[in-house]
Amino acid sequence: MVLLGLAAFFYACLSLASHFSGGVSVNKTISLSLSALPTYTLYSLARMLAAYFLSVLFTLFYGRTAAYNRLAEKLMLPLLDVLQSVPILSFLPVVLIGLSSFMPTRLAAEIASVVLIFTSQAWNMTFAWYQSLTTIPKELKEATAIFRLNSFMNFKTLELPLGAIPLIWNSMMSWAGGWFFLMAAEIFTVGQQSFHLPGLGAYLQTAAFQGNIPAILIGLATLILVIILMDQLIWRPLLAWSDHFKLEMVENENSPTSWFLDLMSESAILRWSKEHVFSPLLEKLEQFTIRRIPPQEPEIQTNQRLGTANILLLVIISAAILYGSFQVAKIFVTLPNTQWVSILGAVLATMLRVIIALVIALAWTIPVGYAIGSNPRVAGILQPLVQVVASLPATALFPVLVASLIVINGGLNISAVILMLMGTQWYLLFNIIAGAAAIPQDLKYTSSLIGIRGVERWRSLILPALFPYIITGGITASGGAWNASIVAEYIQFSGQVHSVTGIGSIIAEATASGQFNMLLISTLVMIGTVVLINRLVWRRLYRIAEERYRLE
């Protein structure tokens, strides 16, 4: 039903998109001067912040509903699988056409850009939040029931603290993913329309298209500076603050620290604000919820009945889905067999690149992620470096990579795998770091006391503790790799187009040329492939993590 519903939705939107030609384009000239960089950077930061705010709201509500409502979970998890596998460029006509119908083109393009960045940020955070909720120890749930906490207090004192570490690390990953796709979100083409939004991503893409290597390096240096400042002023303080949420009975001897957090804790202004403003407001909010919301434990709801209004709504939605599915089926039938063969071959080619990228990513992210997450000294050295490298938009470096490998036989395929790897491995690394940081210190001491070391320590403690986080990282990394294929398999450099066989290349070319029927078919084929993989592989591993590797 989810797949058919999405197919009907895409058909409706792309039917409108087929008539979207002419009119006024948002085609502002992007300056490559140094004086424009500060303003462009602020524009990009504003779009990233808006998208992140939407992602957090989506994560908290969507993940909690899916974790505690079995009936909703049957619909919401497949829908999440679908959404995280939809290529970012396939959202363009859908979002832009809908917004342009009732608002100015520039505003529609800005909101579309924010929504596109949101699609690169939300899914991994939602999966991490869902995983943390489904693996809460049962004795802690029983404690909240004994204390008669209502849903708000349960969220504040149990769910959010236990989900803090994975949420913070996946927030860092979401920002890295947003930077990765920033170039595609600020300059894009839909049919005959071209949209250029001023920003750091547009600056880098314009420099890459013109082959201006100095401008690319200056743009990357600006991005690195922004990433380092965010690491020191935001992420490192949050990680140091979240360390006291670890589920352990023994305090870590080498807890993470932050000079900025220490500085803020000594601030008289902030101390006064906390004591006289924030704490009283929070207390009033808690008292309000205690009076208005009855005590309850968020039990998983299984047996639920649909009311008459819901049944009527379901019938209407089903009829619309059936109609849209019929129209999509007609488009599928009219596609020549030769094109179907090429699409299926492209899917297999992209799948092979995704598998290679995942294997390479798993080989190095597990040991490195554990080292960073379990050793604050190593984290102090590698964490900023990892954030910088993960946040660098590989699409800005890709033209240089293509230029150097194009002379080699199969060089474009190698460069495509490298770019997919650069867009995939960080999902795994950041989740593994979060898992390593969440291993209780008392379990580490216990394993050392009874002499568990080396391979046995990895088999009995480290890998079981990391397993849920590896699965969360793997499912988002897999979707990220398929999504990255649209920029890895189709690239413009110095006025020329370079592409390799793959479903991402077909989607990118169909988007650029306005072939909406081909865009619809190739997008749905990719979605169906990713959902099938998630159902046969990742979802089963998720259940194993929930049943066997819960920390209790």
What distinguishing features does this structure have?
552 residues, mainly alpha, MetI-like fold, 2 domains, two-stranded antiparallel ribbon, two-stranded antiparallel sheet, 23 helices, 3% strand
Give the helices and strands, then pairings.
Blueprint: H1 2-17, H2 37-68, H3 70-85, H4 88-100, H5 105-119, H6 122-134, H7 138-146, H8 151-180, H9 182-186, E1 187-190, E2 193-196, H10 200-210, H11 213-242, H12 259-265, H13 268-292, H14 308-334, H15 337-374, H16 376-391, H17 394-405, H18 411-422, H19 425-437, H20 441-449, H21 454-488, E3 490-493, E4 496-499, H22 503-513, H23 516-548
Antiparallel strand pairs: 1-2, 3-4
Helix pairs in contact: 1-4, 1-14, 1-23, 2-3, 2-5, 2-6, 2-10, 3-23, 4-5, 6-8, 6-21, 8-11, 8-16, 8-19, 10-11, 10-17, 11-12, 11-16, 15-16, 15-18, 15-19, 15-21, 15-22, 17-18, 18-21, 19-21, 21-22, 21-23, 22-23
